[in-house]
Amino acid sequence: MLFFSKMKGGGQSPPGVGLSEIAWSWVGALLGIAPVAFLHYNLFSGDDFVYIIGSFGASAVLIYGAVRSPLAQPRNLVGGHIISAIIGVIAYKLFYPCPWFASSIAVATAIAAMHTTKTLHPPGGATALIAVIGSEKIHDLGFLYVLLPVGAGVLIMLVVALIVNNLATSRKYPEFWF
User: Fold this and answer.
1) For residue 165, what pLDDT is reported?
2) Based on C-alpha coordinates, what's the Rg of the chain?
3) How confident is the model at residue 48, as a pLDDT?
4) HSE (CB half, 13 Å, CA atoms) of 131?
5) What is the pLDDT of residue 161?
6) Does residue 13 lie in a domain region?
7) Which terminal CB of the chain, N or C, has fewer other CB atoms within 10 Å?
8) pLDDT, position 111
9) How far apart (Å, rounded) are the C-alpha atoms in residues 130 and 83?
10) How many Cβ atoms are within 10 Å of 58's Cβ, its own excluded?
11) Is residue 136 part of a domain?
């Protein structure tokens, strides 16, 4: 019974946010995803380079919508994605004949590595998974996946977060670097 009673919750719902906070989150996400998507669709659309991956959308929620969260800080954003990308590529290369195992080992190992390095960033789990389940374009990148799209995309989004999140007087980003 104790096991199931833990599932009742009991805490309070998070507080609502004002229109200003919503607007700054929207502007940040728009300006953060736009250059990454522009690179992907306009400058490199004919190449094999992939500049945008799904986990960037989840990172945008954190770094533009939850700027004070420890999970949204630069160390976590950059470290979480880079570590997870490396682990995802390794998992794919070692276990590609068994995609269900490669997927699960990539995500589980990425979580453990992010915990160990104090870089926990939930979208990192998706970055590791994308390295395994992604298209042939992703697989063909191999370890280049760590730099393009992951490293470049994360750095672009970080620069935008540093600018946009500090324009508003009610925001400060980052809370910490290391």
Assistant:
1) 97
2) 18
3) 66
4) 36
5) 98
6) no
7) N
8) 98
9) 13
10) 16
11) yes
What is the 3-class SS of 85-138, one letter each residue?
A: HHHHHHHHHHHCCCHHHHHHHHHHHHHHHHHHHCCCCCHHHHHHHHHHHCCHHH
The range of the structural domain enclosing residue 113 comes to: 20-167
Number of structural domains the chain divides into = 1
Low-confidence ranges of the chain (pLDDT < 50): none
Q: 91-107 pLDDT, tens per residue?
A: 999 999 999 999 999 99
Amino acid present at 2: L
Considering the domain boundaries, does residue 93 fall inside one?
yes
Q: Which token pair is 132? A: 């395994």
**156 token code pair:** 């672009």
| Cα torsion through 124, 130, 133, 136, rounded to 10 | -160
Alpha-carbon distance of 128 to 80, in angstroms, equals 10
CA dihedral sign, ordered 126, 139, 32, 113: positive
Query: Length of the chain, please?
Result: 178
One-letter amino acid at 32 equals G
Judged by DSSP in three states, 173 sits in coil
State phi, psi for 48 to the nearest 5 degrees. -85, 0
The 10 Å Cβ neighbour count of residue 94 is 13
